[in-house]
Amino acid sequence: PYYVDMNQNLFLEASLHSSDQNLTLFVDTCVASPNSSDFKTLVYELTESGCASDSTYALFPSSRSDVARFGFNSFSFVNRFPSVFLQCKLVVCRYQDYSSRCYQGCVSRFKRNADS
């Protein structure tokens, strides 16, 4: 466990361990939950499809393509839960494959009107 105060800045880093140095890493979706085994029922979205859902979420530059850095302010689930667990989905792509998901960035999905 990592103990933090409310509204403290948290900085995280994910790294890819592979002998193939021609890969890059992209943070697609991160959600937080008060339950370490349930990331569906009560969740707080930090980012979805590469788009920040939380105003404090930020990506930070890295000199290495196989390292993704990001951060956000700590929070609690209505002070009823003593812990918050984080689950992130990352995408691995070929370095400089600009048609890959890693280079698309934020992908917002628009819903169509049922009338059209």
From TrEMBL:
This protein's record includes keyword Hydrolase: no
Pfam families tied to this protein: Zona_pellucida
Matching InterPro entries: ZP-C, ZP-C_dom, ZP_dom
Keywords on record: Disulfide bond, Signal
Residue ranges that the Swiss-Prot or TrEMBL entry lists as coiled coil: none
Signal keyword on record: yes
PANTHER family: CUB AND ZONA PELLUCIDA-LIKE DOMAIN-CONTAINING PROTEIN 1 (PTHR14002:SF38), ENDOGLIN/TGF-BETA RECEPTOR TYPE III (PTHR14002)
Protein name: DMBT1 protein
Organism: Pomatostomus ruficeps (Chestnut-crowned babbler)
Gene that this sequence comes from: Dmbt1_5
